[in-house]
């Protein structure tokens, strides 16, 4: 049994790794004495992956928007049993999610971990699609899409993405549209499943007081046999995306008591991978905290004037072929907030960032991340997210500590400009 052990002595954590015969990568971060155990079975496949070359074929195909999310729903369906009930009977809480770049199935429990792990592997690796159950699911997901279309927080975010991006699929709702899901059939679902749910494209991550030898036994006994050979990397095709934003301002009216807004700064520094991509993410999130965090003078000023409330804040999301900073909040005068942000950013361009703020926030964030290693959910979800960026979360704090004030200055000047943002507003009906 070939297994590797990776250690980071600075944070006193280790990671076990094993690759099964099918190509499935299995990771365990042991947490001796922890009662809670957590498992995530994830595939590098999300709502952005609508154009690709299926395994075993030569020509690219384009599939309906929302199919990754649809597939996640359908995997919980078995001909003779209810997966949720099965996990519940074994004392586990099970869930799943689909985002732009991945789909994950997860459970947590205190007892019967290995039985639940076997159940997780088996149900994810045994799709059951019929014409009837696919048609039935369309009605369920259509209702879900309509519900989100009426959700002001969801709509203001996706309207902002629509304003920033011309062609990239990140601008499309993860669930697709009511029209797009009508085009989904069981054959297309199987094509997507057989390509993206191949073990070579998947990761199983476990954390808790767990025996790795026992995990490997369960994996070898539970995973599907006779799986067709996969490919080391799937050919995914994304449209050409201009660097410029598409629209400066998008407004819509929905049921909300106060106008809500999202300001998106589109990234045009793309193509980074692994450590460099993670470094850019960390630097940008430190900047967002410096600029707009609750401890910033700017936040306190706008808050005391009644222009923003406690919902105001920012976050950066970045991948190899797209990235953006998002600043969100609610305000009776969102255009005034934007005007003040522009003036504030111009002042900083002229006067410079505060190095003391940078060091304080960096130290605070490092402390928060060290504390995070006490949470099995924090470890598992971050590990999967960064692994799909070709980076080990075990090295995250080392990258954090390597970031300099000069990195923040350079990033500020390149990213927060007057020509690369979109303002999205939802006003009350």
TrEMBL record:
InterPro entries reported in the protein's UniProt record: Metalloenz_LuxS/M16, MPP/UQCRC_Complex, Pept_M16_N, Peptidase_M16_C
Location of the Peptidase M16 N-terminal domain: 63-177
Domain Peptidase M16 C-terminal residues, every copy: 183-363
GO molecular function, one term: metal ion binding
Record Gene3D superfamilies: Metalloenzyme, LuxS/M16 peptidase-like (3.30.830.10)
NCBIfam families registered for this protein in UniProt: YfmH_fam (NF047421)
PANTHER family, A to Z: METALLOPROTEASE (PTHR11851), ZINC-DEPENDENT PROTEASE (PTHR11851:SF134)
Name of the molecule in the record: Insulinase family protein
